[in-house]
Amino acid sequence: MRTLLVVTSSFEPDQIAQLFTREDGSFHFARWGRPIVPVIFGVQDETLPALKGAIEAIVALSGHQMAETDPELGTNLMIFFLSDWEELSELENLDRLLPEIGALVPRLIGANATQYRLFRFDETGAIRAAFVFVRLTGGISRMPADEIGLEQAVKAMLDWGPTAFQARSPLIRGRDAVARLHPEFAALIRAAYDPVLPAMATDASYALRLFARMQKTVDAR
Question: Residue 216 pLDDT more than 50?
């Protein structure tokens, strides 16, 4: 089990704002408004404990909660591992949950994408469900299950902007070669789940409130 130590963060407010900025320049922040109930498809049974353990570690870091079932949806964080994007079209009943999946598959193929996330929001704007799709190819296919789990858990905890992880990975590798959550992202996730803050915001000044609450968190054993 991973433990979490707290120190000071170096993220600046404008950097935080950029993490939640969309292609059109608008700002959108959202966190989960209900306990997270994950289910994972497309992997062997022996990898499930590592994947779920990583999700549990990130949720515990945030101060948020997990549950056995969602009273409305049953499960609300669905993670699909695929060998190619065409498999999405073959998943039974997925089009009922995601009517846009038919149009999405050609886009993912054309972009040679390796992962994609879709969020659903409640009436307050908080995240109520997330659908995560990971194509196991290239570098991702060679990553240990717990590293994949950590990365996907981080990316599912908040409605990040499309360029949030282009400049830096949410994970950092220590001298022992073990990948851990980057301390700046750990700090931001903790701040994002401060109950004083609203669960959704569309004004970039919200980044200042996140900055004020940030504690740098380093993931250590």
Answer: no
Three-state DSSP class for residue 138: helix
The strand pairing partners of 129, in sequence order, are 120
The pLDDT of residue 176 is 76
Distance CA(51)–CA(42), nearest Å, equals 12
Global confidence as pTM: 0.87
Closest C-alpha among 12, 18, 1 to residue 164: 18
CA distance 111 to 135: 12
CA–CA gap between residue 108 and residue 114 (Å, rounded): 8
Buried b (16+ CB within 10 A) or exposed e, 26-39: ebbbbbbbbebbbe
Give the three-class secondary structure for 195: coil
In angstroms, the CA 40 to CA 80 distance is: 6
DSSP state of 46: G
Q: How many CB atoms lie within 10 A of CB 122?
A: 16
**Average of per-residue pLDDT across 183-209:** 95
